[in-house]
């Protein structure tokens, strides 16, 4: 579904990206509008699927998830049954924050958050026990330089 987004919608979306916990009054004040039109636009954007959900961003390290691994996966399997099993294995694992199918030499890349190396190994062992993969390379992020969920509106 395509929806027209005007400047006021973009301002509202920027505010929601910045902090989804703001009150309607705060958002309306920040975008130079009143509460009712802001609420109507937010409702319209939700119904159109522009706003998928409201959530909170948690500090992974503060909660003990100090290791972030980027996992590069190559597979020699490309049939529908393998893909279905692989997708199920990923969806069943809360450690997987992101998963992308790629073009090029690497088939998939995963962003995996765990407490440390032992937790990563447990994740790895569980994954390869469920699905066959040709090659797995894990890269440990030494430092998160930039992380955002904000789109450049």
Automatic annotation (TrEMBL):
One of its GO terms (molecular function) is sequence-specific DNA binding. Residues 5-66 form the HTH asnC-type domain. Keywords: DNA-binding, Transcription, Transcription regulation. Pfam families: AsnC_trans_reg, HTH_24. SUPFAM superfamilies: Dimeric alpha+beta barrel (SSF54909), Winged helix' DNA-binding domain (SSF46785). Coiled coil: none annotated. One of its GO terms (biological process) is response to amino acid. GO terms for cellular component: cytosol. This is Lrp/AsnC family transcriptional regulator. It comes from Roseovarius spongiae. The lineage of its organism: Bacteria, Pseudomonadati, Pseudomonadota, Alphaproteobacteria, Rhodobacterales.
